[in-house]
Amino acid sequence: MLAKIKNIFIVLLLVLIITQFLRPEKNLGSYDSITSFEEATGVSEEVKTVLQNNCYDCHSNTTRYPWFMEVSPVTHYMAYKIEEGKEHFNVSTWESYTDKQKDRKLEELIEEIEYKKMPLKPYTWVHGELSGSDAKTLIGWAKEAREKAKAPTKDSLPEQVVDSMAVSSVTAK
Asked: What is the pLDDT of residue 65?
């Protein structure tokens, strides 16, 4: 019996050693793609800090890796979670979403934060919980970004509507 346990232990140790050399690809993109998201959604410095500290590691093409991410099987688990997070919402590909998808992504962000589903528990074990004030800040920003995106701009209005708005404002004076 003891010999079987010893053999199992040796096999597990060998698997761990081998997996140290079989690493997943790191998520090391440029911050430029994040900048376009921030500009498009009107991210303030306060919101930017909250997003950097709680969201971008899993929801962008740029991840800050702590030292323990070099240890297998943690590195494989985190690579999987990062890919999964990017599938749901990736700020680095914000421009590729349609207006409807952008609105839905922001709506989902609000819901996930309100129901305390994000950030995930394993992430908060290392990085800490999202504070109530930070959650409120993110929700307020996301709601505002959704409203701005829904508001018609002069460029998006049909020409007749723009002309009638100009005539109405001139006659109102």
From this structure: 75
